[in-house]
Amino acid sequence: MTKLTEVISTSKEQPNVLQHKLSANPISAFKAFMMNILNGVSVGAVVSLVPAALLGNVMLALLPIFPMAKTIIDISNLSMILLAPVSALVSSRLFKLTAIQSATLALVALVGAKNWQIDNGIFMIKGTGDILNIIITLCLGVYFIQLVGSRLKAYNILLLPTLTLVIVGSISTILYPIVAQITTALGELISQVTLVQPVLMGILMAVIFGIMIISPISTVAVALTISLEGIASGTANLGITACGFTLALLGLKANGVGGSLVHFLGSPKVQMANVVGHPKIVIPVILNAAILGGLGAIFEIQGTPLSAGFGFSGLVGPLAAYNAGDQSMQSVLVIILLFFVLPTALAIIARLLFINKQQLISDDDLKLRID
Q1: Alpha helices, DSSP H, located in the chain
Q2: DSSP codes, 296-313
Q3: How many angstroms separate the CA atoms of 295 and 199, rounded?
Q4: Distance of alpha carbon 212 from its chain centroid, rounded?
Q5: Of the ranges 19-28, 93-102, 219-228, 315-324, the best mean pLDDT one
Q6: pLDDT in tens, 106-147
Q7: Cα-based distances in Å from 241 to 24, 217, 314, 337
Q8: Which of 11, 25, 38, 59 can pair with 98 through a Cys bridge, CB separation 3.0 to 4.6 Å?
Q9: DSSP 8-state symbol, 355
């Protein structure tokens, strides 16, 4: 009971960071607010997705000789489902919320993810949830929590989670169908790209998915919505691969080897906040994605609706291309060239051109705020 009283007391004493900032400069406060949310979701996405990306296909290969691999696969898949609450906890730390406030935000984020449904009284959870709706829910949740502040006093632990779930949770649930329509509409628009000439389609598809992977839109959800397959799926993966390698090498000096590996072994979505703050980062991504997409169409790199949207992460894109091809040595060499050698080479060129020579982009523009 003493510890609980201390937590409540801490909650009351915690300064309202957002209100202080708003009174100082509303515009800069709003920008800082959104950057905290985007950084929280970016880091949350990587933390929850990386285990499955690193272990998924490796454990599947070891499954016949290593029974424990099934447990490891299940555990890593479980982490993906928790993307929303993990993102909320990271955001809470950035906003310097108290323990009670952080736990409350995690609860309402899970509601906003809408990766759950009730079937005959049983809760069913699948996938990561809608990232755009998670972001909206976090914005509403943080604002409401900061608005309430310490007004609830000793009743904080009783009323804050309840009020936040009822008010913010209800709003996010009502908004979800509208937000989901954005993904559907975008998917229908992208599906028109598949009707153009193959090489042009490959270029456009790679550029579109290369940009989407560093936005709040889920590339996997879009790909599944329109059942993206064949060369369209393969070039979409190449666009994401180009994005991951380009941002990794551009930010190598600022983020170190470990932080750079996250971009293509995990997801380049970790740069989402930096892209919003420095849109010029997208320029080399577009150029490199276009090159790889065009080459992918020429070499007829393919994929499936389930593989599209992953890129190099978990080797999903390369393995899908391998399984869809003739699996000859020539096919393997082409896959290695397009999914590893060329993305690395293009990323190095982009760093030399945009950072070292033209100085259009600085190392600090790609610095990950994940500590």
Answers
A1: 2-13, 17-24, 26-62, 68-81, 83-94, 99-113, 131-148, 156-191, 198-212, 219-225, 230-250, 252-261, 272-277, 282-298, 316-324, 329-336, 342-351
A2: HHHTT--B-TTTTT-TTG
A3: 8
A4: 10
A5: 93-102
A6: 999 999 999 998 888 888 888 888 999 999 999 999 999 999
A7: 42, 17, 11, 12
A8: 11
A9: I
285 touches 211 (CB < 8 A): yes
Over the range 125-134, which residues count as b (16 or more CB within 10 Å of their CB) and which as e? Answer: eebbbbbbbb
Answer whether 40's CB lies under 8 Å from 138's CB.
Answer: yes
What tokens does 354 get? 């945009």
Query: Are 95 and 17 within 8 A, CB to CB?
Result: yes
Closest CA to 50 of 304, 283, 365, 314: 314
The two tokens of residue 180 are 């989901």
Side chain identity, residue 312: F
Structure tokens at 268: 């380049």
Q: Tell me the per-residue pLDDT of 188-209, one tens digit each, with 9 for 90 and over.
A: 899 999 899 999 999 999 999 9
CA separation for the pair 222, 120 (Å, rounded): 29
Contact assessment for residue 214 and residue 275, using Cβ atoms and an 8 Å cutoff? yes
Phi-psi region of 301 (alpha: psi -120 to 50; beta: other; left: phi over 0): beta
pTM attached to this predicted model = 0.84
Kindly report the length of the chain. 371
Q: Please give the DSSP secondary-structure letter assigned to residue 338.
A: I
**CB-based burial of residue 275 (10 Å sphere; 0-12 exposed, 13-18 middle, 19+ buried)?**
buried
Between CA 193 and CA 225 the distance in angstroms is 14
Quick: pLDDT tens for 203-242.
Answer: 999 999 999 999 988 888 889 888 899 999 999 999 999 9
**Neighbouring-strand partners of residue 123:** 118
With H, G, I as helix, E, B as strand and everything else as coil, classify residue 85: helix
Q: How far apart, in whole angstroms, are the C-alpha atoms of residue 269 and residue 267?
A: 5
DSSP state for residue 118 in the 8-state scheme: E
